Protein 1
Amino acid sequence: MIDEYQKLHPEITVKHNRFATSDEAKEQFQTSLGAGSGLADVVGVDNSWMPQVMQNSENFFDLSSSNVEGRWNDWNEKIATTYDGKLLGYATDIGPQSIAYRADLFKAAGLPTDREEVAELFGGKDATWDDFFKVGEKFKAAGTGPAFYDDSSSVATSWGDQYRVLWEDPDNGDIIAGNNKDLRNIYDTVTSQDDLSAHIARWSQDWVDAFQKDKFAVMPAPSWMLGVIKGNAAGVTGWDVANVFPGGGVNSGGSYLTVPKQSQHPEEAKALADWLTAPEQQLKAFKATGNFPSQVQAQKSDELQQVTDPFFNNAPVGKILTDRAAAVNEIPYKGENYFAITTAFNNAIKRVSVDRTHSAQESWDMFETELKTLG
């Protein structure tokens, strides 16, 4: 799309800075923000970093414009809007979750393979997390070899995204994760069911390699993850998508384009961010990568509903993800410590599931200690 934009605007040159991981991108973002220099003209910001943008609102341009009024769902726009009404980010995508699964591995385990039957297997519209783990037990009992799902911390994160308040108190900013009974239940359940996991951490090289080695059969998959699966599992057949998710709907992820006041070309930067997040461009992005449009017009389009994906057995991913997005009821509150708290939480599960160096209780105690250092 950047190439297309430069053809439309030959007077503009766009240099695309890319980072290997989200952590590297965030580190550069924080360092440059603090130094007062080094940020690009347009900066992509993960939704989990938006609290930092809000806290440093004076360092970002207000992107409010009649051209973008009504472009996004209210909850999506609210995340990037200051108390005094300044819009600091244009939403690029959202992450409604579905269940991605290997139909061939399900068949070997004696489970249904048709996506509608698989949705019912997981509980259909009334699916619960208990149903999810029960299917995992059935899959494991078949003894065919692969693990049920890839990563315990990702299952926990998906589950946690269904709660509005889990990590911090929205009224006073206090960190409540250590005493939150819902979070402790998620942690205890996932660590006690760890034998269903492949014991690998998402985004690690082992995880990337696992797609080619039939290491697991199921992934809780935000829309943007479908593109990742296709890339890592290139040449592997059997992947499909079921229109179901435990506990109902959940949005995980999504990003924004911001224009920092460090920019030497703010008007040109704003125009690029506007164009990249317009409905037409986001439909192209969805077809290419699975990034589900954040724009209302794109979400309602017939073009989106008709999108299928040959890699996922021609699954009607446009319709499935539209249904999953419509099922979202809660948007998690993310305060200034959200990124640090969730990193510590994921590391706590990793010590139990991936490194296997600590018991569940030992690792939870370490998590609580880390929380105290955050405030």
Note: The longest strand covers residues 216-222.
Protein 2
Amino acid sequence: MTRSGRIAVAALLAALAATPVLAQEWRPAWTAAAAPARFDGPPEAPLGYLNETIRQDLRMGTAAEAVRIRISNEVGLEPLTLNTITAAGPDGRVLPVTFGGLAEVTLPVGVALVSDSLSISLQRADLLTVSLHAPGPTRGVVRRSAVRLGQGTAPVSADAELVRRQSFISAVYALSDEPPAVVVALGDSITEGASSTLGAEADWPSVLGRRLEAACPGAFVVANAGISGNQVVRDGRSPNVRARLDRDVLSLPGVTHVVLIEGINDIRHDGNPANVGRTPEEVIAGYRQVIARLHLRGIKVIGGTLTAFAGSERFDERSESARQTINAFIRESGEFDAVADFDRATLDPAQPDAIRADRVGNDKLHPNDAGYLAMGEAIDLEDFSPGGVCPA
């Protein structure tokens, strides 16, 4: 090779080295935390699912060039068998979903499976339709979400009734060459969106996700890790927040921030006023454990103040005093990286122990859609992009 040829090759190699290589990575586009089957329905309630197909139309929190679906039996009580699993994007093309090449799977207790990659392209806010058949009888083992049901293995119509039920899909992962930062909303039913309009994405994590997308398109995705009845200190309907931190937060790729609002279920009595709730000191100690473990991973933690609940069935002065003490810690201790003052965003100024009448549901505990909107708008976006500068 001539000297001029060697110079040309060297220049080409230098140019290639200077060209950024986009590494494709997987990020959660939709999540539902694992949760034990609920047994608090009426005695005549059916045993979950029996020879039914469950259809879920899942709103994607980020764009994808391909997807993978995660199913969970991590907190189930018995082996879980699923089959006839399909997925379709906006183009309507229905693809079979397999797990290591298998179309029918049985998950032992404690197991989660991630599907083979599916060549489905989606934009943010597109719907991914996933259907799966549960031969049953079996109960759902992830948090409640919107589903449509049909008998047998026949496809379920988009016009079928929408109901709030536990199912089996715990995550959809999206492949992207511009992977977003992941914000996890960690909490109880108020985060799950238990009282929001079904299918409307009106819960506060969805509100936050839309705000972040408008401010920094493609830069963030919000994963909902709320579970009804969850607690900081004790196990309730689900493992306490410290026990589930690895599974529901740290196992997700790309987490940079967590917004935590938990504690209402800890400080209230259990339905019998003689069985008082946990002390604020116990809840605060639990917060400190969560903060410490997340900080070890470089994850910033935003503390959400506890919303009011006067007028609800388990309200008492002791619990209200505990709420005030906990909220003072969240606002003033400096141990959280930032504060989302959900309490002030929803509070009735004429009754400081209650949510405003136009922002609360009939139970006086859970926000309505207007309350969720106020919560989602109470979070300062500069906590995610300081100075208003979107991450590259």
Note: Residues 7-21 have pLDDT under 50 and may be disordered.
